[in-house]
Amino acid sequence: MADNSQLAEWLEAVGRGDEQAFQHLYRATSAHLYSLLLRMLRNEERAQDALQDTFVKVWKKSHTYSSDRGSPLTWLLSVARYRALDMLRRQRPETGMPEDPDVEALLLVDENSPGPQDENVTEEALAAVRTCLGTLQADQRRSVILAYYEGLTHQELAARLGAPLGTVKSWVRRGLMRLRECLVETR
Amino acid sequence: MNDHEPQPEDTRAAEYVLGTLDAEQRVAVDMALQAGDASLAREIAWWEQRLGQLGLELEPVAPPAHVWSRIALGTGIGRSSVAGGRRRSRRLWQGLATAASLAAVALALVLLLGPDRPGVEGEAGAPVYASVIRDEPTGAGWLVTTADRGDRLEVTALRGYPTDADHSLQLWLLPEAGNPIPLGLMPQAGRHRMGLPPEAADALSAAAKLAVSLEPAGGSPTGQPTGEVLWVEPLTGQPG
């Protein structure tokens, strides 16, 4: 698997219309994006549509990436995620896949356990986010995680968590503030 | 990552990235970004990098191969290589990296391994053709060679190309002139032999090509390609 500098090189080449680089980029990153899109959209066809839209957009607008946007892979994940959010906001899907038993379980992984075997994953950055999420109160953490992986709005979070809207908004907001403080501290 | 540290009281950028802003707030952020609010853009980039780590927690899932084909169609990449070609249909665009040189290698291999391979052995006088069909992004590929004195094609899946249950990959012979001739369905694994209809056997030549299209399960209902043509590859021939 390509590392970040290789991905950045390909993205830059894509900006010059390099089809080969585009293929390489797709091959190296599409499985990460598709996994997240499946999680958010819970429907294979919609996830495939979103993946397609994402890469068509990247091909047409790759000049909007610059190295100060950080790692190419997380940037691509953002582009994919915004696309999924758009789709979700337009129409909540007919659920085509089983509910995830517990997204939070994703983050209960032992900090010392190896992360995904992939050089794209900067272990330090991932560990920092894991650690810092662990410092959030449970309701805050759950809200942020559900919002990230399922693209839930405040209203949907309130319904899911069985809490008043104002309370949920506060959980998200305080959770993000705490997360940021922690991430800045552990840098 | 940049060193920008967002102001603690403002979670607008974070919630924009997380997706929890309502439509009105979201539009307001978009407008501020379009108006060139660099500080907000930096905050958003900062959060994209941090929250993006959560996306990397998930086990990667390879998308089905037809997604790439659709992307290639959507971006128009790969089309330049058939400009001025003899294709009637705009959908018959050239696949990905042309594998002419690979086909030559394949042919050499077939000839080299010939004595051990049924269909090649003792076939003085029967020409041998080979082609490699390859999907660059997924690494999927097939080796296609003639066998049984040119009466059959042998298709060996080097690496499968998953399709959903509603679709099959169908192989076509594109004669030097005339319509595509349906051959058979591409195997996802292993080696598969398909009979060559007489018209296809007659049309085999170094000027012919092979194409694979995405069809309804079981193959094209019309006898002509109805779905996207995913790859077109040349045949390399060794006269008998």
From TrEMBL, chain A:
Q: Where is the RNA polymerase sigma-70 region domain?
A: 25-92
CDD domains this protein is in? Answer: Sigma70_r4 (cd06171)
Q: What is this protein called?
A: Sigma-70 family RNA polymerase sigma factor
Taxonomic placement? Bacteria, Pseudomonadati, Pseudomonadota, Gammaproteobacteria, Salinisphaerales
* Family affiliation: Belongs to the sigma-70 factor family. ECF subfamily.
**Residue span(s) of domain RNA polymerase sigma factor 70 region 4 type:** 127-179
Keywords from the UniProt entry: Sigma factor, Transcription, Transcription regulation
Protein's organism: Spectribacter acetivorans
From TrEMBL, chain B:
A Pfam family cross-referenced in the UniProt record is RskA_C
| TM ranges | 96-114
InterPro entries attached to this UniProt entry: Anti-sigma-K/W_factor, RskA_C
Domain Anti-sigma K factor RskA C-terminal, first and last residues per copy: 102-229
Which keywords does the record carry?
A: Membrane, Transmembrane, Transmembrane helix
* Name the record gives this protein: Anti-sigma factor
